[in-house]
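Office hours follow-up: a student asked to see two folded examples consecutively, so here they are.
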Amino acid sequence: MGLNIVLVEPEIPTNTGNIGRLSLGSGSALHLIKPFGFELSDKRLKRAGLDYWKHVPLFIYENIAEFYDKNEGKNFVYFSSHGKQDYCSIDYQDDMFLVFGKESTGLPTNIVEQNSDLVYNIPIFSPHIRSLNLANAVAIVVYEGIRAMKNR
């Protein structure tokens, strides 16, 4: 059982480091799409991922086009605060690609529009925040996916 965590243009090294650690712990692969808001050698990235970073199944892409070319035909779902469907309603599958946008603006509008039937959200019950922290959102979704797949 394994999922693929995809970060489109991540900006905050500590989020990416935490997600790298989560990837390893959950048996998921991590896919990072450039440009990044940091260098992969950033000590904050390494600190957040601790000494586990070297074991993370990591794939790096120069841009979104390269990502789609190399993963053509795969099973994608997308996450956005603009999604109309709840993340709990996903039919999670082994090797599914869970695609998250960057911290400041989320997924590019064209990706959300072109895949509207595959865009999900995590409900937020306060009008005082726009979104959850990226690392927290990824953790919620990944472990819901694991739970759902184990309970089949």
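And the second, which I mentioned at the end of office hours:
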Amino acid sequence: MQAVPPITISRLDLGRLKRLLANPMVRGTDAADALDDELERAAVVDPTALPPTVVSMNSRVRLRERRSDRELELTLVYPDDVGPDRVSVLAPVGSALLGLAVGQDIEWPLPGGRVAQLTVLEILYQPEAMGDLDV
């Protein structure tokens, strides 16, 4: 298991995610506990101070799976917005992506106990960088 990389999140995302975690349908689940652990260790900044190279909520990111060298694009979303290429922040890969910067790696658990190693290659869209703070 690799070391946990440092993460940065915006104060706005922190508030929204804390409200999500307070929801009785979410609170106390393994996914909520994992996300809460991520939030507890994050450096928190104002939305305007979030570097454009950091994955925030509703960011579209390009990733590379190191073993296969395959690239994929995902958007990090809230649970109600999940769809094709849109991963929930409550999914293991979603909570692991939150706050990562370009160049950082995460491990993504796969079925059968395997683990994919993903590298953040590029932030294709980040709401804070675009001034879209209402998304």
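Two things to take away from it. The mean pLDDT is 91. The CA atoms of residues 30 and 133 lie 28 Å apart.
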